[in-house]
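Provenance and format

Records in this collection were gathered into a single text stream. Each protein contributes a sequence line and a C-alpha cell line. The two records reproduced below are adjacent in the stream.
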Amino acid sequence: MGDEGRKGAGGADGGGKAGYRASDVRDYVQSLYDWLNQDEGILYGSPDKAVSKVQVCWMADVAAIRNALSIGADMIVGHESLCYPHDVLNTGGVKDFMSWKTNHARLRLLGGADITFMRAHGTLDRFCVYDDFAGMLGLERTFRDPKDFSRTVFDVPPITYGEMIAKVKAATGMARLRATNGDRGRAVRRVGLPWGGLGLLGNCAYMQKLAALGCDLFIAGETCNYGFRFAVDAGIDMIETGHEISENPGMRRFAETLKSALPGLEVAFYENLPEWDTV
C-alpha cells in the first residue's frame, strides 16, 4: 500500500509523532504485572518500529488488518494468535504453516504495510478481559481466589434459567445464541464464566474447577459439543455467547487505558464481529 494509506506512520529513524516505538507498547503491557506470558509479546515486526497509531482488537484477522491499513496504524495489539495452528509463532510447528492460505493472507497484509503485531493474551485476561465480561453481564463477584483471578463465582438474585437467557441476550445484543436444553423454569443461584475459549473441550479442567465451586450455570464465551455435554452431565446448564463477544469489552477498555498510559499515541479499537449466523 502506498503512502496514502499510511498517514499516521512515523519515520524510520525516529519514533512516531509522539516519539514511541513498538517496544514502548510492549513494555507498558509488561508493566501491568512485571512480566509477559510465554505466548505474548511482539510476534511480527520489529520492536524498534516507530509507532504513532495502534489498533487494538480481539484478533488480527484479515478484516481487522485491512481496517488497520485504512486508518494508518503502525501496530496492532491483538488478544488472540496471529497464525494457525494456535501459538505456532511461539512453539514452532509444521514447516509449511506460513503458506497456509489463512496465515499467508494475514502475513502478506502486515508485511506489505510494515505493521508490527503484538499479542497481549493472559496479561489482559487478568487485567480487564475477564472482569469486563462479568461487568457486561451485570454480575457481581461473590468469591474470587486471591491467587487465581479466574477461580471466581457469582451468586445471583432469584432468577430462572429462561430469564437468565433473556438477560444474556439483552446484555450482548444477540438476538440468538446457543444454550443447553435445560428446564427454563429452573432456579439459577450460582454462575461461573468460562470466558473466551474456556468452555471448549480442551479447557474442561477449567469448567471442572467452576463446577467444584458449586456453579449451576455457565455463561461461556465459546464452547463446543463436547463442552455442552461436559456441563450437562455435571448437572450444569450453559449459555454460549461467543469468543469475541466475551472479550471485546475488555479489549475496548484496554485501548482506552493504553491511550492514557502513553500520551500522544493514537489508539483505535476495532470490534471483531462473529463470522457465523444461524441459517
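Adjacent record:
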Amino acid sequence: MNRKWYKGDTHLHTVNSDGDLTLGQLVEKGKNKGLDFMIITDHNYNTVDESYYDGDMLVIQGQEITDEMAHINVWGVKVPEDPPYVLNDAEDYKKLVKKCKDAGGIISANHPFCSMCGFQISLDNFKFDCVEVWNTVQHSDNMKNRDWWVDKLLKGEKIAAVGGSDYHRDVAKLPILAMPTTYVHAKSNTEKDILEAIKEGRCVVTNSPSSSMINLSYGNCGIGDTGSLADGHKLRVAVTNMMIGHTLKIYNNDKVIFETKANKNAKLYMTAVDVKEAGFVRAEITYKFPAGIKKIYKLVEKKFLDCKDNFIPDFIWAFTNPIWIEE
C-alpha cells in the first residue's frame, strides 16, 4: 500500500475551552500554515462532533480529558461520559481511558513531565497509544518526556511519540500553531488512516511545517515498520532542510551509530549506515544555544512554562519514531 506524508497538529484549543479563536478561525489559521490535518482537543469538551474537511484539510474530533492529576488526549471518538468527570485518583483515570479505548479512541499521554501540568500519577497505570513527547515551543521539560519515551523503547514497549502545539493563542507575537508539527505516513488523509498510522508509530515530529524533515528506510521498511537484522540492509537516512550548526544523530537502541554536525545549510542530506543490533533504530536532530542565549531562555522558561531546571539541555529540532529490528 502506497503511503504519503501528511503534516498536522494534534493538540489544539478553541474558545470552547480556554483558547482565543473560534473553531473557524483556528481552522483557517491551520490552512494558512499548510497543514493537512488538525485535531481539535478542547478541555473536557467535544468541539467537533464528527471529523470533516475544510477544503483539503481534515479536521479530526478530539478532546483533552483534563484534571489536576493528568491531561490525556482522546482522538477520533466522543468521550463516552459527559463532564464533569470524576477523576479523584489513578483508578478513575484508568476506567475512563479504558472506556475511550473500548469506544475506538486513540489515547495520548500529554506533556507527562510538564512543570506546570504534568502527570501526578504513574504513567504505568495506563495503556496509551502514544505520548506527547514535544509540547508547544521547545523547552526543557520536553527533554524529560523524550528520555521517558526512549527508556520505554529500550524496554521493548512500542509506544508512539507525537508532538502538539497545545495552541491556545499566539504568545508574544510568536505564531506557535503547528510548533511542533507531526508528520504522519498514512495511506490517505482520512481520520481512520491518520489515527491508525499514528498508533502504529509512523510519525516524525519537527519544529514547524517548513523545518527539517527526517525519513528512514531499512530495505522496504519505513518508520513504524519491523525489519530483520538477518537481511543485512543499511539504514538509509534522508534529511531535508538541514540547518547549519544542527547535529544529526542516528541511534541503534541506546548507541549513537552515526553523528554529523552541519557546516552549511542543505536542502537535502543523505547517508547510509550499518545496523549492528536487533531492537530499533531512530534519528533526531539537535541544537545548542550559546551561553548568553541559554540564560535568557531559562528566564523565559521560568516565566511562561514554570520550568524549574537551572540548565538548558541540547534541544531537539526534529525526531523520528523507530524502525523496529528483529533478529
